[in-house]
Structure formats: C-alpha cells, structure tokens
User: What shape does this take?
Amino acid sequence: MASVTSQLVPLESNFLVPNATFFVELAAFALLLWLLARYIIPPINRAMTARQDAIRQQFAELDEAKSEADAAKDEFTSQIAEARHEAARIREEAREQGAAIIAEMREQAQAEKERILESAHAQIDADRKSALTTLRAEVGTLATSLAERIVGESLQDDERSARVVDRFLADLETLESSEAAAAQGGAS
Assistant: This one.
C-alpha cells in the first residue's frame, strides 16, 4: 500500500481544491464587476441611449425634411405647370387680341377705302357734270357761231340752239358709250 499512498498527490498541490488565493481573486473580480456596474456602465449606457435617441431624432427630422422637400417639389412642379398654363392662356389671349386688332384694322381700312372711293366717285361725277355744263355752254356757243357762219344767218333763237346742242351732246355720249362697250368686249 505504500506504493499507492506515495503515488497520491498531497492536498496542497491539487488544483481542483480552491485555496485562499482563489477567494481573494474572486472577491477582487466581484469588486471590479460591482465598480464597473455602479460607476462605469451607467454613464456609458446613458451616453449610448442619448446617442440612440439623437440618431432616432435625426432620422425623424430627416424623414420630415424629406417629406417637406417632396411637398415643396410637388408644389414647385404644380406652380411651374400652372405658370405654363397661364403663359399659354396669355399667349392665346394675345393672339386672339392681335387677330381682333388686325380684323378691326382691316375693317377700318376697308371702310376708309370705301369712303375714299365714294368721295372720288362723287368728285368725278361732280367734275363730269361741271365739265358737261361748261362744255354744253361752250359747245352751244361755238356751234351756234359756226352754224351762223356756215348758214350765213343769225341763229339767235335760244330754244333751237339748246335743242341742237343737246342732240349733239347726246350723239357724243352714245358714241362714247358704244366705244367703251366695244373696248370691254374686245378685252374679254
């Protein structure tokens, strides 16, 4: 049996049996854990919580700013579309006003042309009548004096000389209107 007991290891050197050093180390470790839990970890947790809250708040503000930016973009887009529609409406109104002004100016020009033509025709008719009156008087006088020279007698009868002058002028007008008709027929 001696060999069996000599082979057994004494109690002090057995690592499975705790000794006083182990308990001191365990107490130091527990003290260190308590100090960490009491003074170090709570400020770190508060800082981490504050940082997480700040990040959540920043995300919320970012989402809010993004929604505001989207709303502003939509409003800007709608304002641009509205401005384009307004510009198109103003252009169309200007185009319509321009067309109305042009039509009005054409009407005024046409009325002015008609007035000028009527005035010119009236002036021509008045000049023609005046020329005819003057021509009748002069032709009557010339015809009477020429007839007196040819016949050798005096033709002072006013009624007879007026008839001769009127017949001469009527023949002249007939000749003139037939030449105008022939000129129109030849031009066609």
